[in-house]
Design brief:
Strand order of the largest sheet: 3-2-1-5-4-6
Order of helices and strands: HHHHHHEHEHEHEEHEHEHHEHH
Largest sheet: 6 strands, parallel
CATH class of one domain: Alpha Beta
Number of helices: 15
InterPro entries: MT_TRM10-typ (IPR028564), MT_TRM10-typ_sf (IPR038459), Trm10_C_MTase_dom (IPR025812), tRNA_m1G_MeTrfase_euk (IPR007356)
GO molecular function, one term: tRNA binding
Organism: Quiscalus mexicanus
CATH topology of one domain: Alpha/beta knot
Distance between the termini: 127 Å
Enzyme class: transferase
Radius of gyration: 45 Å
Protein name: tRNA methyltransferase 10 homolog C
Strand content: 5-15%
Oligomer: single chain
Structural class: alpha/beta
């Protein structure tokens, strides 16, 4: 009995232990050999235990399946690691070949890359990651540049604050403010009136009203600094309206000190109708020259948000004369709408009042909207615009170029 057990132990140790030491399962196999020896002892010594039949074949199958699962779990990790390493090597080769490959990829991105069904899908995925990485770098660069500009602006502000504190600059600014205020005060007595119609609040949104008020603030500032300012009237102005609240936001304590006239009356109740001219872009009548005896009315609104003909209809209901600026007569338009902001209108009217020169006045129109000034009639201007549109379309290019060179020779 003992000799049989010893022989069985030697066979198990000689055949199984080398395999167990390679795969780290030495302890489990010692238990296996011990159970085998005990099972043989139990079979031979039937007097100690009750008679039971042990199915060794089923037991061996169960033990082998457990060993296979453990070995597969231990082998799967190196396979996965090897596939990731191979994917990284492939990416490095593609990067050296000059393809669009991201510099840094996470394990999840590598797994997604390996799961792509085709080579073209892998290329598209890598291109997407590469562009995403470039966008991140670009955003970071912009943020750094913005931070540098902010720091430079802070340094310049600190320098300008030091110059502002000098007594000469303070005295100069106070003197100029007094001079501007004196001119505005004189204009309230002797100046030509200019009316802002504040009756378009219901036609605009809150944001558009805010933009309108901001343009009026810039208009008032340029008017106050001019040589011969207008006497500004805010007509149809209601207290605690949206206009009023926006003006208080912009002017704060200076709102009550402005040298302008603010009233809730209509301009027809203040001035005679025969002297009023409503400036609107929809008017069929074109303004030829600036009249110092007339009172011009400007609608306080943003043109982009208003339907065409609103200000013209209002002027007709009140029986007022209308006029439009001669933009088509002096400007060769290229792109953009023919609407102007309120501060641009103020600059144009002030220049016309001082000089009477339309070319100088229309220089305040944004240069992106027109090509150049023209000294030709409206019919020839329309022909030129038609020729330019035909050139853009490319229809009969040579014929049109010859005609254009014939009509407009180089000087």
């Amino acid at each position: 009995m003992r000799s049989a057990n010893m022989l069985l132990r030697r066979i198990v140790r000689g055949s199984v232990l080398p395999f167990a030491t390679q795969h780290g399962m030495k302890k489990d196999l010692f238990l296996l050999s011990r159970t085998l020896s005990l099972s043989l002892c139990l079979k031979q010594d039937k007097s100690c235990e009750p008679s039971e039949k042990l199915d060794l074949d089923e037991w061996k199958k169960v033990m082998k399946s457990g060993l296979r699962e453990e070995v597969s779990e231990m082998v799967s990790e190196p396979k996965e690691l090897s596939s990731l390493a191979a994917a990284r090597e492939t990416l490095e080769m593609w990067r050296l070949a000059g393809r669009a490959v991201p510099e840094n990829m996470s394990e999840e991105q590598l797994k997604t890359f390996m799961e792509c069904p085709s080579k073209s899908a892998k290329k598209k995925y890598l291109k997407y990651l590469h562009l995403k990485e470039l966008y991140k770098k670009n955003d970071k660069r912009k943020m750094d540049e913005k931070r540098e500009r902010r720091l430079e602006a802070q340094d310049q502000d600190s320098k300008t604050d030091e110059t502002k504190k000098s007594p000469f600059v303070c005295l100069w600014s106070r003197t100029m403010d007094k001079a501007y205020n004196w001119r505005a005060a004189q204009s309230m007595i002797f100046g030509q009136p200019l009316v802002f119609d504040m009756s378009y609040e219901k036609e605009m949104s809150v944001r558009e009203v805010s933009n309108t008020v901001r343009q009026i603030v810039m208009s008032e500032s340029s008017n106050r600094r001019s040589v011969d300012p207008f006497h500004i009237h805010f007509c149809n102005f209601k207290d605690d309206s949206l206009y009023h609240r926006e003006f208080i936001k912009n002017y704060r304590e200076a709102w009550d000190k402005l040298l302008i006239t603010v009233t809730d009356q209509c301009y027809t109740e203040i001035f005679p109708k025969d002297k009023l001219i409503y400036l609107t872009a929809d008017s069929p009548k074109v303004m030829k020259a600036f009249d110092h005896d007339k009172i011009y009315i400007v609608g306080s609104m943003v043109d982009k948000s208003i339907k065409r003909g609103v200000s013209l209809a209002r002027a007709k209901r009140l029986g007022l004369e209308t006029a439009a600026l001669p933009l088509d007569k002096y400007l060769l338009w290229s792109a953009g709408a023919k609407n102007l902001t309120l501060d641009q209108m103020m600059h144009i009217l002030l220049t016309l009042k001082d000089t009477g020169d339309w070319k100088k006045a229309l220089e305040f129109v944004p240069k992106r909207k027109y090509c150049d000034f023209v000294n030709k009639p409206v019919k020839e201007l329309k022909k030129t615009l038609d020729l330019i549109s035909t050139l853009k379309l490319g229809k009969g290019r040579e014929k049109v170029e010859k005609q254009f060179a014939k009509n407009y020779p180089k000087r």
